[in-house]
Amino acid sequence: MSEADLKHDPMDHAEDTARQDAPESDSLDEDNRLKPEFVRSVKEALDEEDTDRVYDLVEGLHPADIADLFELVDERERLTLASSIRDLMGVEVIAELNDWVREALVEALPADVVAEIAEQLDTDDAVAMLEDLDEKDQQAVLAEMEPEDRAAIESALSYPEESAGRLMSRDFVAVHESMTVGDLIDFLREHRELPTEFWEVFIVDPMHRPIGTCSLSWILRTPRNIPLYDVMARDQTLIPADMDQEEVALRFQKYALISAAVVDPSGRLIGQITVDDIVHIIQEEAGEDALLLSGAGDGDINEPILLTVRARLTWLVVNLATAMLAASVVGLFQGAIAKFALLAVLMPIVSGMGGNAGTQTLAVAVRAIATNQLTDSNTVRMILREFRIALANGFALGLLIGVGTWLIFDNPLLGAVIASAMVINNLVAGLMGILVPLTLDKFNVDPAVSSAVFVTTATDTMGFFSFLGLAVVVGLA
Question: 173-292 has which CATH code?
Protein backbone atom coordinates (compact mmCIF):
# COMPACT_ATOMS: atom_id res chain seq x y z
CA MET A 1 0.00 0.00 0.00
CA SER A 2 1.26 3.53 -0.73
CA GLU A 3 0.40 7.08 0.11
CA ALA A 4 1.05 10.36 -1.64
CA ASP A 5 -0.19 13.90 -1.40
CA LEU A 6 -1.77 14.67 -4.74
CA LYS A 7 -2.02 18.33 -5.66
CA HIS A 8 -0.34 19.09 -8.96
CA ASP A 9 -1.90 18.77 -12.38
CA PRO A 10 0.39 16.39 -14.32
CA MET A 11 0.00 18.53 -17.43
CA ASP A 12 1.80 21.30 -15.58
CA HIS A 13 5.05 19.37 -16.04
CA ALA A 14 4.90 19.70 -19.82
CA GLU A 15 4.18 23.40 -19.47
CA ASP A 16 7.05 23.88 -17.04
CA THR A 17 9.42 22.02 -19.37
CA ALA A 18 8.31 24.13 -22.31
CA ARG A 19 8.95 27.29 -20.35
CA GLN A 20 12.39 26.12 -19.29
CA ASP A 21 13.33 25.17 -22.85
CA ALA A 22 12.03 28.41 -24.32
CA PRO A 23 14.67 30.96 -25.33
CA GLU A 24 15.11 33.95 -23.10
CA SER A 25 13.26 37.08 -24.09
CA ASP A 26 15.31 39.70 -25.89
CA SER A 27 13.99 42.25 -23.38
CA LEU A 28 16.54 41.06 -20.81
CA ASP A 29 19.98 42.52 -20.36
CA GLU A 30 23.16 40.71 -19.39
CA ASP A 31 22.42 40.33 -15.67
CA ASN A 32 18.89 39.13 -16.35
CA ARG A 33 17.09 42.37 -15.57
CA LEU A 34 14.38 43.90 -17.72
CA LYS A 35 15.82 46.61 -19.93
CA PRO A 36 14.77 50.22 -19.20
CA GLU A 37 13.69 50.64 -22.83
CA PHE A 38 11.31 47.71 -22.53
CA VAL A 39 9.85 48.96 -19.24
CA ARG A 40 9.31 52.41 -20.78
CA SER A 41 7.45 50.81 -23.68
CA VAL A 42 5.17 48.99 -21.26
CA LYS A 43 4.54 52.17 -19.28
CA GLU A 44 3.71 54.12 -22.43
CA ALA A 45 1.22 51.44 -23.48
CA LEU A 46 -0.33 51.52 -20.00
CA ASP A 47 -0.63 55.34 -20.11
CA GLU A 48 -2.32 55.10 -23.51
CA GLU A 49 -4.57 52.31 -22.19
CA ASP A 50 -3.48 50.17 -25.14
CA THR A 51 -4.13 46.80 -23.51
CA ASP A 52 -3.44 44.81 -26.67
CA ARG A 53 0.03 46.32 -26.98
CA VAL A 54 0.73 45.66 -23.29
CA TYR A 55 -0.27 42.03 -23.76
CA ASP A 56 1.92 41.65 -26.84
CA LEU A 57 4.92 43.14 -25.03
CA VAL A 58 4.58 40.95 -21.94
CA GLU A 59 3.49 37.72 -23.61
CA GLY A 60 7.01 36.42 -24.29
CA LEU A 61 8.35 36.97 -20.77
CA HIS A 62 9.09 34.27 -18.22
CA PRO A 63 6.68 34.35 -15.23
CA ALA A 64 9.50 35.48 -12.94
CA ASP A 65 10.23 38.40 -15.27
CA ILE A 66 6.55 39.35 -15.34
CA ALA A 67 6.68 39.44 -11.54
CA ASP A 68 9.75 41.71 -11.73
CA LEU A 69 7.91 43.96 -14.17
CA PHE A 70 5.22 44.64 -11.55
CA GLU A 71 7.91 46.01 -9.24
CA LEU A 72 9.37 48.23 -11.97
CA VAL A 73 6.14 49.98 -12.95
CA ASP A 74 4.49 52.60 -10.76
CA GLU A 75 2.12 51.49 -8.03
CA ARG A 76 -0.87 53.09 -9.75
CA GLU A 77 -0.09 51.14 -12.95
CA ARG A 78 -0.01 47.67 -11.41
CA LEU A 79 -3.73 46.95 -11.41
CA THR A 80 -3.96 48.15 -15.01
CA LEU A 81 -1.06 45.89 -15.93
CA ALA A 82 -2.71 42.92 -14.23
CA SER A 83 -6.00 43.44 -16.06
CA SER A 84 -4.20 44.02 -19.37
CA ILE A 85 -2.28 40.75 -19.41
CA ARG A 86 -5.28 38.68 -18.20
CA ASP A 87 -4.47 34.98 -18.63
CA LEU A 88 -0.72 35.63 -18.34
CA MET A 89 -1.29 36.28 -14.63
CA GLY A 90 -0.89 32.61 -13.78
CA VAL A 91 0.05 31.01 -10.52
CA GLU A 92 3.75 31.11 -11.44
CA VAL A 93 3.60 34.92 -11.61
CA ILE A 94 1.65 35.22 -8.35
CA ALA A 95 4.14 32.96 -6.56
CA GLU A 96 7.10 35.08 -7.74
CA LEU A 97 5.64 38.48 -6.85
CA ASN A 98 7.21 40.63 -4.15
CA ASP A 99 5.26 40.25 -0.89
CA TRP A 100 4.08 43.86 -0.77
CA VAL A 101 3.13 43.95 -4.44
CA ARG A 102 1.28 40.64 -4.19
CA GLU A 103 -0.59 41.76 -1.08
CA ALA A 104 -1.81 44.93 -2.80
CA LEU A 105 -2.95 43.01 -5.89
CA VAL A 106 -4.63 40.27 -3.88
CA GLU A 107 -6.53 42.79 -1.78
CA ALA A 108 -7.85 44.39 -4.97
CA LEU A 109 -9.13 41.11 -6.43
CA PRO A 110 -12.51 39.50 -5.60
CA ALA A 111 -12.42 36.69 -3.03
CA ASP A 112 -13.47 34.01 -5.52
CA VAL A 113 -10.64 34.96 -7.90
CA VAL A 114 -8.08 34.86 -5.08
CA ALA A 115 -9.48 31.49 -3.98
CA GLU A 116 -9.11 30.12 -7.49
CA ILE A 117 -5.48 31.25 -7.63
CA ALA A 118 -4.73 29.85 -4.18
CA GLU A 119 -6.10 26.43 -5.13
CA GLN A 120 -3.61 26.19 -7.98
CA LEU A 121 -0.61 27.18 -5.88
CA ASP A 122 1.52 24.92 -3.72
CA THR A 123 0.38 25.10 -0.12
CA ASP A 124 3.40 27.13 1.01
CA ASP A 125 2.89 29.69 -1.76
CA ALA A 126 -0.85 29.88 -1.05
CA VAL A 127 -0.16 30.49 2.62
CA ALA A 128 2.35 33.22 1.76
CA MET A 129 -0.33 34.88 -0.36
CA LEU A 130 -3.07 34.73 2.28
CA GLU A 131 -1.26 35.12 5.59
CA ASP A 132 -0.95 38.92 5.40
CA LEU A 133 -4.59 39.53 4.51
CA ASP A 134 -6.97 40.96 7.08
CA GLU A 135 -8.84 38.29 9.03
CA LYS A 136 -12.11 39.20 7.30
CA ASP A 137 -10.61 39.02 3.79
CA GLN A 138 -8.74 35.83 4.64
CA GLN A 139 -11.93 34.09 5.80
CA ALA A 140 -13.78 35.30 2.72
CA VAL A 141 -11.17 33.72 0.46
CA LEU A 142 -11.08 30.47 2.44
CA ALA A 143 -14.88 30.23 2.24
CA GLU A 144 -14.62 30.16 -1.58
CA MET A 145 -12.09 27.32 -1.65
CA GLU A 146 -12.63 23.59 -1.99
CA PRO A 147 -12.82 21.85 1.42
CA GLU A 148 -9.59 19.88 0.91
CA ASP A 149 -7.55 22.92 -0.14
CA ARG A 150 -9.11 25.03 2.60
CA ALA A 151 -8.23 22.45 5.26
CA ALA A 152 -4.61 22.31 4.09
CA ILE A 153 -4.19 26.08 4.19
CA GLU A 154 -5.96 26.46 7.54
CA SER A 155 -3.68 23.76 8.95
CA ALA A 156 -0.60 25.64 7.70
CA LEU A 157 -1.89 28.95 9.07
CA SER A 158 -2.27 27.34 12.49
CA TYR A 159 1.53 27.13 12.79
CA PRO A 160 3.60 30.12 13.97
CA GLU A 161 4.82 32.60 11.37
CA GLU A 162 8.23 31.80 9.86
CA SER A 163 8.01 28.21 11.06
CA ALA A 164 8.53 24.96 9.17
CA GLY A 165 4.76 24.38 9.21
CA ARG A 166 4.24 27.55 7.18
CA LEU A 167 7.19 26.86 4.91
CA MET A 168 6.57 23.20 4.13
CA SER A 169 4.87 21.79 1.06
CA ARG A 170 2.28 19.06 1.38
CA ASP A 171 3.19 17.77 -2.07
CA PHE A 172 5.40 14.75 -1.47
CA VAL A 173 5.60 11.04 -2.19
CA ALA A 174 5.44 8.61 0.72
CA VAL A 175 5.18 4.80 0.47
CA HIS A 176 5.08 1.93 2.94
CA GLU A 177 8.19 0.00 3.88
CA SER A 178 6.67 -3.26 2.61
CA MET A 179 7.03 -2.26 -1.05
CA THR A 180 9.81 -3.42 -3.35
CA VAL A 181 11.75 -1.22 -5.72
CA GLY A 182 9.69 -2.60 -8.62
CA ASP A 183 6.43 -1.81 -6.80
CA LEU A 184 7.62 1.74 -6.26
CA ILE A 185 8.63 2.23 -9.89
CA ASP A 186 5.25 0.94 -11.08
CA PHE A 187 3.52 3.22 -8.59
CA LEU A 188 5.42 6.30 -9.81
CA ARG A 189 4.62 5.47 -13.45
CA GLU A 190 0.93 4.73 -12.91
CA HIS A 191 -0.05 7.68 -10.72
CA ARG A 192 -0.21 10.78 -12.89
CA GLU A 193 -1.22 13.05 -10.04
CA LEU A 194 2.09 12.93 -8.21
CA PRO A 195 4.13 16.10 -7.63
CA THR A 196 5.82 17.31 -10.80
CA GLU A 197 9.20 17.67 -9.12
CA PHE A 198 10.68 15.59 -6.30
CA TRP A 199 14.10 14.12 -5.55
CA GLU A 200 13.43 11.44 -3.01
CA VAL A 201 10.64 9.19 -1.78
CA PHE A 202 9.87 8.97 1.93
CA ILE A 203 9.45 5.52 3.43
CA VAL A 204 6.91 5.39 6.27
CA ASP A 205 5.78 2.82 8.80
CA PRO A 206 2.11 1.85 9.38
CA MET A 207 1.75 4.91 11.68
CA HIS A 208 2.89 7.14 8.79
CA ARG A 209 6.11 8.02 10.59
CA PRO A 210 9.16 8.45 8.31
CA ILE A 211 11.75 5.73 8.79
CA GLY A 212 13.93 6.38 5.76
CA THR A 213 14.29 7.83 2.28
CA CYS A 214 15.12 6.59 -1.21
CA SER A 215 16.59 8.97 -3.75
CA LEU A 216 15.43 8.61 -7.33
CA SER A 217 18.96 7.70 -8.46
CA TRP A 218 19.01 4.72 -6.08
CA ILE A 219 15.57 3.59 -7.20
CA LEU A 220 16.54 3.59 -10.88
CA ARG A 221 19.76 1.64 -10.29
CA THR A 222 18.44 -1.02 -7.91
CA PRO A 223 16.97 -4.40 -9.02
CA ARG A 224 13.20 -4.48 -8.91
CA ASN A 225 12.90 -7.36 -6.44
CA ILE A 226 14.84 -5.63 -3.63
CA PRO A 227 12.64 -4.47 -0.69
CA LEU A 228 12.76 -0.75 -0.01
CA TYR A 229 13.51 -1.54 3.60
CA ASP A 230 16.88 -2.98 2.53
CA VAL A 231 18.03 -0.06 0.37
CA MET A 232 16.53 3.00 2.00
CA ALA A 233 18.72 5.52 3.80
CA ARG A 234 17.80 5.39 7.48
CA ASP A 235 19.86 8.40 8.46
CA GLN A 236 17.56 11.37 7.84
CA THR A 237 17.05 14.84 9.25
CA LEU A 238 13.49 15.34 10.49
CA ILE A 239 12.14 18.87 10.84
CA PRO A 240 9.57 19.57 13.59
CA ALA A 241 6.66 21.58 12.21
CA ASP A 242 7.10 24.34 14.79
CA MET A 243 10.84 24.84 14.15
CA ASP A 244 11.85 28.37 13.17
CA GLN A 245 12.70 28.73 9.50
CA GLU A 246 16.15 30.11 10.35
CA GLU A 247 16.98 26.91 12.24
CA VAL A 248 15.62 24.90 9.30
CA ALA A 249 17.96 26.74 6.95
CA LEU A 250 20.91 26.05 9.24
CA ARG A 251 20.14 22.32 9.18
CA PHE A 252 19.96 22.29 5.39
CA GLN A 253 23.28 24.10 5.22
CA LYS A 254 24.99 21.96 7.86
CA TYR A 255 23.89 18.58 6.50
CA ALA A 256 23.85 19.51 2.77
CA LEU A 257 20.18 18.54 2.39
CA ILE A 258 18.14 18.64 -0.80
CA SER A 259 14.86 17.95 0.95
CA ALA A 260 13.72 17.00 4.43
CA ALA A 261 10.60 15.54 6.00
CA VAL A 262 8.46 17.70 8.29
CA VAL A 263 6.78 15.89 11.19
CA ASP A 264 4.09 16.78 13.70
CA PRO A 265 4.52 16.36 17.51
CA SER A 266 3.58 12.66 17.23
CA GLY A 267 6.28 12.09 14.60
CA ARG A 268 3.91 11.62 11.66
CA LEU A 269 4.99 12.85 8.21
CA ILE A 270 2.95 15.91 7.24
CA GLY A 271 5.08 17.66 4.61
CA GLN A 272 8.49 18.32 3.14
CA ILE A 273 10.80 21.27 2.71
CA THR A 274 13.02 21.48 -0.37
CA VAL A 275 16.25 23.34 -0.94
CA ASP A 276 14.68 25.87 -3.34
CA ASP A 277 12.59 27.18 -0.42
CA ILE A 278 15.69 27.34 1.77
CA VAL A 279 17.56 29.53 -0.73
CA HIS A 280 14.88 32.19 -0.28
CA ILE A 281 14.99 31.82 3.50
CA ILE A 282 18.77 32.23 3.68
CA GLN A 283 18.54 35.35 1.54
CA GLU A 284 15.69 36.75 3.64
CA GLU A 285 17.35 36.08 6.99
CA ALA A 286 20.72 37.50 5.93
CA GLY A 287 19.15 40.68 4.59
CA GLU A 288 16.84 40.96 7.58
CA ASP A 289 19.67 40.89 10.12
CA ALA A 290 21.65 43.52 8.21
CA LEU A 291 18.63 45.82 8.02
CA LEU A 292 17.69 45.29 11.67
CA LEU A 293 21.20 46.28 12.74
CA SER A 294 20.74 49.57 10.91
CA GLY A 295 17.15 50.11 12.07
CA ALA A 296 15.95 50.43 8.47
CA GLY A 297 12.84 48.24 8.87
CA ASP A 298 12.09 45.68 6.17
CA GLY A 299 14.20 47.62 3.67
CA ASP A 300 11.82 46.69 0.85
CA ILE A 301 11.41 49.47 -1.71
CA ASN A 302 7.82 48.31 -2.26
CA GLU A 303 6.90 48.73 1.41
CA PRO A 304 4.36 51.56 1.97
CA ILE A 305 6.08 54.85 2.81
CA LEU A 306 4.16 55.29 6.07
CA LEU A 307 5.36 51.93 7.40
CA THR A 308 8.94 52.67 6.36
CA VAL A 309 8.88 56.09 8.04
CA ARG A 310 7.44 54.58 11.22
CA ALA A 311 10.07 51.82 11.35
CA ARG A 312 13.01 54.13 10.72
CA LEU A 313 11.74 57.00 12.87
CA THR A 314 11.36 54.74 15.89
CA TRP A 315 15.06 53.94 15.93
CA LEU A 316 16.07 57.47 15.01
CA VAL A 317 14.18 58.74 18.07
CA VAL A 318 15.93 56.14 20.23
CA ASN A 319 19.27 57.23 18.79
CA LEU A 320 18.38 60.85 19.50
CA ALA A 321 17.76 59.95 23.15
CA THR A 322 21.11 58.18 23.40
CA ALA A 323 22.83 61.14 21.74
CA MET A 324 21.35 63.40 24.42
CA LEU A 325 22.77 61.06 27.06
CA ALA A 326 26.22 61.35 25.51
CA ALA A 327 25.81 65.12 25.31
CA SER A 328 24.96 65.25 29.01
CA VAL A 329 28.31 63.57 29.77
CA VAL A 330 30.08 66.26 27.75
CA GLY A 331 28.11 68.87 29.71
CA LEU A 332 29.69 67.66 32.93
CA PHE A 333 33.07 68.81 31.60
CA GLN A 334 32.06 72.06 29.92
CA GLY A 335 34.29 74.02 32.26
CA ALA A 336 37.33 71.93 31.34
CA ILE A 337 36.52 72.27 27.64
CA ALA A 338 36.26 76.03 28.01
CA LYS A 339 39.74 76.15 29.56
CA PHE A 340 41.34 73.82 26.98
CA ALA A 341 39.55 74.00 23.65
CA LEU A 342 41.59 71.21 22.07
CA LEU A 343 39.55 68.75 24.12
CA ALA A 344 36.47 69.60 22.04
CA VAL A 345 38.45 69.01 18.86
CA LEU A 346 39.77 65.58 19.83
CA MET A 347 36.99 63.98 21.87
CA PRO A 348 34.82 62.95 18.83
CA ILE A 349 37.77 60.83 17.62
CA VAL A 350 37.69 58.69 20.75
CA SER A 351 33.92 58.12 20.70
CA GLY A 352 33.83 57.61 16.93
CA MET A 353 36.59 55.01 16.87
CA GLY A 354 34.99 53.22 19.80
CA GLY A 355 31.68 53.13 17.94
CA ASN A 356 33.33 51.62 14.87
CA ALA A 357 35.12 48.98 16.95
CA GLY A 358 31.88 48.11 18.75
CA THR A 359 30.01 47.75 15.48
CA GLN A 360 32.66 45.35 14.16
CA THR A 361 32.42 43.13 17.24
CA LEU A 362 28.62 43.36 17.23
CA ALA A 363 28.36 42.24 13.60
CA VAL A 364 30.56 39.20 14.30
CA ALA A 365 28.62 38.30 17.45
CA VAL A 366 25.17 38.62 15.86
CA ARG A 367 26.22 36.46 12.93
CA ALA A 368 27.78 33.87 15.25
CA ILE A 369 24.58 33.67 17.29
CA ALA A 370 22.41 33.43 14.17
CA THR A 371 24.49 30.58 12.73
CA ASN A 372 24.85 28.73 16.05
CA GLN A 373 28.62 29.27 16.07
CA LEU A 374 28.28 31.04 19.42
CA THR A 375 26.68 28.79 22.05
CA ASP A 376 26.83 28.26 25.81
CA SER A 377 29.77 25.91 25.34
CA ASN A 378 32.11 28.55 23.86
CA THR A 379 30.73 31.82 25.27
CA VAL A 380 33.63 32.42 27.69
CA ARG A 381 36.21 31.67 25.00
CA MET A 382 34.47 34.10 22.62
CA ILE A 383 34.39 36.86 25.26
CA LEU A 384 38.10 36.41 26.03
CA ARG A 385 38.89 36.36 22.32
CA GLU A 386 37.11 39.68 21.72
CA PHE A 387 38.76 41.15 24.84
CA ARG A 388 42.21 40.34 23.47
CA ILE A 389 41.28 41.73 20.05
CA ALA A 390 39.95 44.93 21.62
CA LEU A 391 43.05 45.30 23.77
CA ALA A 392 45.38 44.86 20.78
CA ASN A 393 43.40 47.27 18.61
CA GLY A 394 43.15 49.76 21.47
CA PHE A 395 46.91 49.85 22.05
CA ALA A 396 47.62 50.11 18.30
CA LEU A 397 45.13 52.94 17.76
CA GLY A 398 46.14 54.60 21.03
CA LEU A 399 49.79 54.61 19.99
CA LEU A 400 48.96 56.13 16.61
CA ILE A 401 46.62 58.84 17.90
CA GLY A 402 48.87 59.55 20.90
CA VAL A 403 51.99 60.09 18.82
CA GLY A 404 50.05 62.05 16.22
CA THR A 405 48.53 64.35 18.84
CA TRP A 406 51.94 64.89 20.45
CA LEU A 407 53.54 65.83 17.13
CA ILE A 408 50.69 68.00 15.85
CA PHE A 409 49.90 69.92 19.04
CA ASP A 410 53.34 69.62 20.69
CA ASN A 411 51.74 68.34 23.89
CA PRO A 412 52.95 64.91 25.06
CA LEU A 413 50.56 64.86 28.04
CA LEU A 414 47.57 65.39 25.75
CA GLY A 415 48.88 62.57 23.55
CA ALA A 416 49.10 60.27 26.57
CA VAL A 417 45.55 61.15 27.65
CA ILE A 418 43.95 60.47 24.28
CA ALA A 419 45.96 57.26 23.87
CA SER A 420 44.76 55.99 27.26
CA ALA A 421 41.16 56.96 26.48
CA MET A 422 41.40 55.14 23.16
CA VAL A 423 42.51 51.93 24.91
CA ILE A 424 39.74 52.19 27.50
CA ASN A 425 36.99 52.88 24.96
CA ASN A 426 38.12 50.07 22.66
CA LEU A 427 37.93 47.64 25.57
CA VAL A 428 34.42 48.87 26.35
CA ALA A 429 33.47 48.56 22.69
CA GLY A 430 34.78 45.01 22.42
CA LEU A 431 33.09 43.81 25.61
CA MET A 432 29.77 45.53 24.90
CA GLY A 433 29.83 44.29 21.30
CA ILE A 434 29.81 40.69 22.54
CA LEU A 435 27.98 40.97 25.89
CA VAL A 436 24.97 42.96 24.66
CA PRO A 437 23.86 40.51 21.93
CA LEU A 438 24.55 37.56 24.25
CA THR A 439 22.39 39.10 26.98
CA LEU A 440 19.55 39.94 24.61
CA ASP A 441 19.66 36.43 23.18
CA LYS A 442 19.38 34.97 26.69
CA PHE A 443 16.15 36.93 27.14
CA ASN A 444 14.84 35.70 23.76
CA VAL A 445 15.19 39.15 22.19
CA ASP A 446 16.57 39.26 18.65
CA PRO A 447 20.08 40.71 19.13
CA ALA A 448 20.03 42.15 15.63
CA VAL A 449 17.16 44.47 16.51
CA SER A 450 18.41 46.58 19.40
CA SER A 451 22.05 45.70 20.12
CA ALA A 452 23.45 48.61 18.12
CA VAL A 453 21.65 51.18 20.28
CA PHE A 454 23.17 49.85 23.51
CA VAL A 455 26.65 49.45 22.05
CA THR A 456 26.86 52.93 20.50
CA THR A 457 25.46 54.50 23.68
CA ALA A 458 28.16 52.80 25.74
CA THR A 459 31.01 53.76 23.40
CA ASP A 460 29.87 57.37 23.05
CA THR A 461 29.40 57.99 26.76
CA MET A 462 32.53 56.09 27.82
CA GLY A 463 34.56 57.71 25.04
CA PHE A 464 33.68 61.22 26.21
CA PHE A 465 33.90 60.34 29.89
CA SER A 466 37.28 58.60 29.71
CA PHE A 467 38.93 61.29 27.58
CA LEU A 468 37.55 64.32 29.40
CA GLY A 469 37.85 62.68 32.81
CA LEU A 470 41.51 61.78 32.29
CA ALA A 471 42.20 65.29 31.03
CA VAL A 472 40.81 66.74 34.25
CA VAL A 473 42.66 64.21 36.43
CA VAL A 474 46.10 64.95 34.92
CA GLY A 475 45.47 68.69 35.07
CA LEU A 476 45.17 69.54 31.37
CA ALA A 477 42.11 71.67 32.14
Answer: 3.10.580.10
At 257, phi and psi to the nearest 5? -85, 150
β-bridge mates for residue 212, sequence order: 203
Strands 259-263, 200-204: pairing kind: unpaired
**Residue 197: how many CB atoms within 10 A of its CB?**
12
Contacts of 424 (CB under 8 A, 6+ apart): 394, 462, 466
Residue type, 406: W
- Is there a contact between 289 and 447 (Cβ–Cβ < 8 Å)? no
> Is the CB of residue 342 less than 8 Å from the CB of residue 410?
no
35-93 pLDDT, tens digit each: 888 999 999 999 998 989 999 999 889 888 999 999 899 888 888 898 888 778 877 88
* pTM (whole model) above 0.85: no
Query: Which helix (H) or strand (E) segment is 56 a member of?
Result: helix 51-58
Separation between Cα atoms, residue 117 and residue 125, nearest integer Å: 10
Domain 304-473 matching CATH 2.60.40.10: the answer reads no
Under DSSP, the state recorded for 47 is H
